[in-house]
Design brief:
heterodimer; A: 268 residues; alpha/beta; nine-stranded parallel sheet; 17 strands; 18% helix; 51% strand; globular; B: 250 residues; Rossmann fold; six-stranded mixed sheet; four-stranded antiparallel sheet
Chain lengths: 268, 250
């Protein structure tokens, strides 16, 4: 299993039941509901691997702490990860979904200067059905969030992305970016629903969403250099989602993540 | 090497090539000139195998083989290279990775082992020097964020990597400042051998100061209406196409 090798490569230890993090690299198989607390000023990395079934996780990131999360969904699962980020703290998430599933991330920026960043990708093939949601709640002043999600669907699969950015009254000088980019192949379908709800007047929010087909010109270009059609399409998709891995919040496992993605792309 | 006979091609229901005849031998450089819309880029695309165009009549032989029945990638593997007028951006795919796959596909086709990482790096260094391509660009995504000049240099870099028998360069000089033009053209000249051939499609005589053609063809309304030597390009630069077109229309 690639996820086991990721954990090994990072030298991560299983997270203790009390869910208390003061630093270091940890992993967690999400097979029960869990609570996690990242202590003040801690620097930590957490690898979360969804188990089969429906599970929730609540993460409290205390003031000044920095948490990086790698969330890998390789099984049929339904998970919700709620992250509350305190003053000056940050949470950076990389999410890779390669199985039929239902995942939701809820990030609440509770206090001034909290930051949230997410780079995600879902890759669906065959009959996969997956829905991905990212809700970002700006509840205090001067918080920033950046969500970038890529989706690829082939075969008869069906994917959906829903992204909500909520800016509470008084959450002034919010800075939020959200983008959802998707490629469908053949009969597959992807829906994307980006939403903004803004109740403050001094904010900078942008969002964008696209669903498109393969870029025919790029495929032609690659074939002219001697790549066959399958390789060219594959490379284009790899590049498209590779962006997420290239900018992964968890450094050092890019190659293994690419491998995880490549394994799924073989089925496109 | 290349023998085009009575080539007709359409896009949609519009006929663009209306009977092209052209023979290119090893060691030769051919320039194709002509007014806008005469079919120059279409000819390049059809030879490369772009499926947007339909060949309705005629024959193309490449190295003794029927080129038209081959898919795009096989034409490439057999040694036909097209330098694109508008090189395409491929986000997330690094130049180095892209070329590694392309070079190794070609080696596989020729029954050779793939290059080792060290061999490949050495090759990239040597070839990027030919067009003074900043080596940092090879670790960036294909053509993404490249300037106009870098994109064209990058085309010639790829040509150097793939070492084609026949290179068709579609307006490789357009949009280049004088320094980039010199670098690109010098690169092409350095890659020239008695075994390969080059077809340059261009609007401007200035490129031909560097890449000296053996033949200059004028394409008009889908046909080659005149063929001359390099002095023809100079005359066209001075006098335009009208005198040729008038003669042809008579």
């Amino acid at each position: 299993m690639t996820t086991e090798r990721i954990i090994e490569q990072l030298g991560a230890a299983p997270l203790a039941d009390d869910g208390n993090i003061t630093g270091g690299v940890w992993w967690l198989a999400l097979t029960d509901d869990r609570d996690v607390v990242v202590r003040r000023e801690a620097r930590a990395t957490l690898v979360v691997v969804d188990g089969v079934g429906a599970h929730d996780m609540n993460v409290d990131i205390m003031a000044g702490a920095q948490l990086r999360i790698l969330h890998v969904v390789t099984e049929h699962s339904a998970s919700q990860i709620a992250v509350a980020v305190a003053e000056g703290a940050s949470c950076r998430v990389t999410e890779i979904v390669v199985a039929a599933s239902d995942t939701r991330i809820v990030a609440s920026l509770m206090e001034r200067g909290a930051r949230f960043e997410l780079g995600g990708a879902f890759i669906l093939t065959d009959e996969d059905k997956a829905s991905v949601a990212v809700d970002v709640n700006h509840l205090a002043e001067e918080c920033t969030s950046n969500t970038s999600y890529k989706g690829v669907a082939s075969g008869r699969s069906h994917g959906s992305f829903s992204g909500l950015v909520y800016v509470a009254p008084g959450a002034q000088r919010t800075d939020s970016v959200q983008s959802s980019r998707n490629i469908t192949i053949g009969d597959a379908r992807i829906e994307t629903l980006p939403q903004l709800e803004i109740y403050a007047d001094d904010v900078k929010c942008s969002h964008g969403a696209t669903v498109g087909q393969m870029d025919g010109d790029a495929v032609l270009y690659m074939r002219q250099r001697g790549l066959d059609l399958t390789t060219a399409k594959r490379l284009q998709i790899e590049g498209f989602v590779g962006d997420v891995i290239l900018h992964s919040a968890v450094e050092g496992v890019e190659e293994l993540l690419s491998e995880l993605v490549a394994g799924k792309l073989n089925r496109l | 090497m290349l023998k085009v006979e009575n080539l007709h091609a359409t896009v949609g229901d519009k006929e663009i090539l209306k009977g092209i005849n052209l023979e290119v031998k090893a060691g030769e450089v051919h320039a194709i000139m002509g007014p806008n819309g005469s079919g120059k880029s279409t000819l390049a695309s059809v030879l490369a195998g772009n499926e947007k165009f339909t060949v309705t009549e005629g024959k193309v032989e490449f190295e003794g083989e029927d080129l038209l029945k081959l898919p795009i990638e096989e034409r490439a593997l057999k040694g036909l290279f097209l330098g694109f007028q508008y090189p395409v951006e491929i986000p997330g795919v690094t130049m180095a990775n892209f070329m590694k796959i392309a070079v190794n596909e070609q080696r596989k086709y020729r029954g050779l082992e793939p290059l080792t990482a060290a061999e490949y790096l050495k090759m990239m260094r040597e070839k990027s020097a030919i067009v003074e391509l900043d080596s940092k660009l090879t670790s960036r995504a294909v053509n993404e964020g490249f300037s106009g000049g870098e994109k064209k240099k990058n085309e010639i870099f790829q040509m150097a990597m793939l070492n084609p028998k026949l290179a068709i360069l579609d307006e490789t000089d357009s949009g280049l400042d004088i320094d980039a033009l010199r670098i690109v053209a010098t690169g092409v000249t350095r890659l020239k051998t008695p075994e390969n051939a080059t077809v340059v499609i261009t609007h401007y005589q200035r490129l031909l100061d560097y890449i000296v053609p053996d033949y200059v063809h004028v394409l008009y309304k889908g046909r080659i209406i005149y063929t001359g030597d390099k002095s023809l390009a100079l005359k066209l630069e001075k006098e335009g196409y009208d005198w040729l077109i008038n003669e042809y229309e008579k």
